[in-house]
Prior knowledge:
This protein is α+β, with helices and mostly antiparallel strands. It has two domains: about 5-200, Alpha-Beta Complex (Lambda Exonuclease, Chain A); about 240-300, no CATH class. It has eight helices and 14 strands. A five-stranded mixed beta sheet has the order 1-4-5-8-9, with helices on both faces. It has a three-stranded antiparallel beta sheet with strand order 10-11-14, with no helix packed on it. A two-stranded antiparallel sheet has the order 2-3. Strand 6 (about 120) and strand 7 form a beta hairpin. The protein is flat, with a radius of gyration of 25 Å. The protein starts with about 30 loop residues before the first helix and ends in a 10-residue tail after the last strand. The model has no long low-confidence stretch (mean pLDDT about 90).
Amino acid sequence: MSNIPLEDRKNWIGGSEIAALFGLSPYGTEFELYHRKKGNLQELDLDSSERVQAGNFMEPAIAAWASDKFGLHLRRVRRYMTHPAIEGYGTSLDYETVTGHYPAEIKNVDGLIFRDNWEVEGDKIIDAPMHITLQLQAQMACANKDKGYLIVCVGGNRLYWMEMEAHKATHVRLEKAVSLFWQRVANDSEPSPDFVKDASAIADLYRVSGDEVLDLKSDNYAESLAHDYAAAAADEKDAANRKKAAKSEMLMKIGSAGKVFLSGFTISAKTTKDSEIEAHTRKGYRGFRVTKIKTKNEGAAA
C-alpha cells in the first residue's frame, strides 16, 4: 500500500517501481513507467486490488509474528519517505523497527514461487529476487539507513527473515537512474519499448482510432510486420488445432482415468461436478491439464 494518494504517485518513483528502470521488474517496464509519469497511462490503483487488500490485513499479523519470533520490535509506517537529495524519489515503508527506525519490508509469498526464486538456510533468507532487493535498498536510501529487514511469510505458515546491509554503490546507481528517468520525462525522451512486455501498455496508448487513412505501401518494414503477424496468427490457429486433436486422442486413450502418469508428464482429467449442471444434465465439466514434470533446470509447464 502506498502512503500517498493515487493522484500524487505520478510525481514519484517509488521503491516498488525502481527495478523497472533496470529492466528487472516482473510488473512493468521503464517504457510503461514513463507513460504513467507523463500522464498518458493511468497510475496503477494497487490499493484496490484484492491481493493488496489481503496484504493490508495480513501484514500486522506477520509483523507481530516476526517481532515475537525474531526479536524485532516493528511498528507500522504511515508517512511517505522522500530521498534527502534526489527530487521525485521516494518510498512507502511497510514497517520499521522501533529501535533505530530501520525499514522492514513485509512480503506474503506463494510456496512454489518462494521455492523457485528465493534461497534460504533455516529461517534465514540468503538471497531474494532482485526487484525486492532493489526495493529494500531504495527504502534504505530514502530513509538514510545503513540496514533494513525483509520479512517473508510463505504459504501462511512459514516465516523467514533477512537483515540486509545498505549497499552504497547500489544507492548511487539508483539515484542516477531516477535522475536520468526524470530528465527523460522532462525532455519527452521516450524509452524504447519491449514489444512483448509492453504490448498491453502500447494497446492502451493507442486504444482510440481516428478517421485518418494511412498509406504504407512503400514501407517495407511495415509490410514485414504484417507478414509476421499473419504468419503468427496461422501458427496460433494450427497450434490450437494440434492441441485440440492431442487432447481428444489422449482422452480416448485414458478413458475415465482422472490422473495419469507418463514419463516426463502428469495428466489431470477429473470431472468437476457442478450441482446445477448435474441436476439438469447428469453431467459435469471434465478438466484436462498436462503438466511437465519439473527437473532441476526446468520449470513446470501446463
